[in-house]
Amino acid sequence: MRHTFRETWSGLKRNASMTVAVIVTMTVSLTLFGLSVMTFQEVDRVKGRWYDKIEISVFLCTKDSAGTSQSGNCEPGQDVTEVQRDSIRTRLEQNTDVDEVFYESKQEAYEDYQRTYADSPLLDSLKVDQMQDSFRVKLIDPENYQGVVAEASSLPGVQNVLDLHEVLDPIFSVLNGLKWGTMGMAVLLLAAAMLQIGNTIRMSAFTRRREIGIMRLVGASNLYIMLPFVLEALFAGVVSTILSGSALLASYQFLIERNAKVSIQALPWITWSDAWLAVGLVAIVAVVLSILPTLITTRRYLRV
Amino acid sequence: MITFEDVSKTYSGQTKPALRHISLQIDKGEFVFLVGTSGSGKSTFLRLILREYRPTSGKIFVLGKDLVHMHQWKVPALRRQIGTVFQDFRLLPGKTVYENVAFGLQVLGRPTSQIRQLVPETIDLVGLSGKEDRQPEELSGGEQQRVAIARAIANGPKILIADEPTGNLDPQTSVGIMKLLDRINKRDTTVIMATHDQTIVDQMRKRVLELDQGNLVRDQARGVYGTA
């Protein structure tokens, strides 16, 4: 075992510049991969409870809604009445384009808000009375929304009709670009990193070809011969994981936690546990990435 | 100990076989010379014993093992029982005599205590006592070959394969190496030596196998180098 570690160490020293190059490439590609994972997580979070279930939100009047620019069909200073509420529900449910109607009360909306912004300074800025009652509408065919939007907008007691997809899709198109863009670059760079590791190990095996020849001659086991190379690649993998993991956690801390969560409070943001999950995935990819090309490369030198 | 049954070997991409229909047996404790011109198949013969290649046809048994059907991962275990020496010594530069001999044991995972005992014993056996701390390049060719022999036999192999061990040495030094191989052979190690050196073969009067273009043309107990 001592011999194995000594060989690993001398291999790393001998190939120091190549090892550094491998670590840099791997760190960058793993960081991109991690960012991509975090973007996937963020998209999932923004879609939230409703996005995949409903298309249209129908917000009902509150005391404060009349007189503003979006007063809709509200009586000034009046909440929506029970009669209006029931008739809106009936009209929505009877519409042939509508699949399902969910009702969300102020109280429920407030609780949802509290959950979403649990660790945000905004938490106390809204009260239950500032929330709105709403109907969440699921369409049979999401493309076929104009009729329902038009009908709902004309009903008394309706303050505003929101097509959720119309609001969120521009954000998603940015996020989707980001997530597939980073993923694509990550995959390309990961492939480059793999080739580079393969080359480094080949060089390392080449400089040690005398020793390897003698080891094979006297009958050292394949595992014994291969182990220094696997450890050498694994060393690069572990260092890259630590570097890119720190980069990911740091960018989470500075971009999301300190920045995005404060300045763009309308959107829910991923949490620390999401960030750690991304780091975990990065670690797994790093190990596979470093060991796989090593095994493939050294097989050639071990063929007897 | 070593049995060839109708063994032929053709390297891939070549039409002429390197060995043709070789059948022979080498017993425990024998000393065998393998002679023939370059390209006659001597090296192929030795490599087949080491399972560096499988034969194209025929059967090979070494130390009771069927080499044709041997699993790849069992090859190292076979090689631990076979010591190998080459014309070019193949010592590791930058390692002392002691370290070179110890290296062969270390990579087999032998415990340090055993290595500390075996290495000096073996160095003593090959007649290099007192030169343990020398670098290979400080030694004469004959001494370097002794180091290589020490490395080959340190693990106590049952067979010693020597491919032209005296090829780079002057006649006087070669005699010393041959005496050493003879001494190793007397300790119950089968020795198979490929050589071009007529004088040595004629002097030793051991079994001679002669290969010519892949054919075994002579198998003579107590033979000489050339029939002519």
Could you please describe the fold and organization of this structure?
The complex is a heterodimer of chains A (304) and B (228). With 304 residues, chain A is an alpha+beta fold. Chain A folds into two domains: 2-48 and 169-302, no CATH class; 56-165, 2-Layer Sandwich (Alpha-Beta Plaits). Chain A has helices at 2-14, 16-47, 82-94, 106-116, 146-154, 164-207, 209-218, 222-263, 272-302, and strands at residues 56-60, 98-104, 134-139, 158-163. Chain A has a four-stranded antiparallel sheet with strand order 2-3-1-4. In chain A, helix 2 runs antiparallel to helix 9 (272-302) and helix 6 runs parallel beside helix 9 (272-302). The longest helix of chain A has 44 residues, at 164-207. The radius of gyration of chain A is 29 Å and the shape is elongated. The mean pLDDT of chain A is 83. The model of chain B has no long low-confidence stretch (mean pLDDT 93). By secondary structure, chain B is α/β, with parallel strands linked by helices. Chain B has two domains: 1-81 and 157-223, 3-Layer(aba) Sandwich (Rossmann fold), CATH 3.40.50; 93-156, no CATH class. In chain B, strands 6-7-8-3-9-10 form a six-stranded mixed sheet, sandwiched between helices. Chain B has a four-stranded antiparallel sheet with strand order 2-1-4-5, covered by helices on one side. Chain B has helices at 42-49, 75-79, 97-106, 112-125, 141-153, 171-186, 198-204; strands spanning 2-9, 19-26, 31-35, 57-62, 65-66, 82-86, 159-163, 190-194, 207-212, 215-220. Chain B starts with a strand and ends in an 8-residue tail after the last strand. The chains are: A alpha+beta (304), B alpha/beta (228). The A-B interface holds A 3, 210-211, 213-222, 224-225, 304 and B 51-52, 72-73, 75-82, 84, 90, 92, 103-104, 106-109, 151-152, 155.
